[in-house]
Automatic annotation (TrEMBL):
UniProt protein name: Mce-associated membrane protein
Cell compartment(s), UniProt: Membrane
Coiled coil: none
Organism: Kibdelosporangium phytohabitans
Transmembrane segments: none
Keyword Membrane set for record: yes
Keywords linked to the UniProt accession: Membrane
GO cellular component annotations of the record: membrane
Length: 154
């Protein structure tokens, strides 16, 4: 009887240990996705017309898949628009959360503050809500799709 009890206790401990390990791994993966999403959303809302290539390169480094392809295809057109606008934007994520998490995919929503400074002008602060679809790649979590969340959307 004592042997059976020992086996039951050992099996219970093994199950609990396995669950704890899996849960800790999932929590770490969620945190990594959220952190990557926050940084990427800030990156996509930050650009200096005086250093366009650096900014566009940063955008490509935090993107993947169709979004990276789109950035490459629209690069020259985007560059011209940015040069003509002559603005510096600096994005800062005020708050963010994961709304969906099913590795290797995750969805992050964020409240973003964007300071837009026109050449020779005064900075203007704008606020926006963004949604990023993340994909875990060999080099970490990257943005596969990004868009604004319309005002009034739930």
């Amino acid at each position: 009887m004592l042997g059976v009890a020992a086996v039951v206790v050992a099996a219970g401990f093994a199950g609990w240990s396995g669950w704890t390990w899996w849960d800790a791994d999932q929590t770490a993966a969620r945190e990594a996705a959220l952190d990557s999403g926050r940084r990427a959303i800030a990156t996509f809302n930050t650009l200096d017309y005086r250093r366009i290539d650096e900014g566009l390169d940063r955008w490509q480094r935090v993107s993947t898949g169709a979004l990276t392809d789109e950035l490459r295809q629209t690069g020259e057109g985007s560059r011209k628009q940015i040069e003509q606008a002559k603005t510096v934007t600096e994005g800062r994520v005020l708050d963010a959360a994961i709304t969906e998490f099913d590795p290797p995919r995750a969805t992050v929503i964020a409240a973003v503050e964007i300071v837009v400074t026109p050449d020779g002008g005064q900075p203007v602060t704008k606020r926006s809500r963004m949604r990023a679809e993340l994909v875990r790649t060999d080099t970490g979590w990257k943005v596969g799709a990004l868009g604004q969340i319309p005002a009034g959307a739930v």
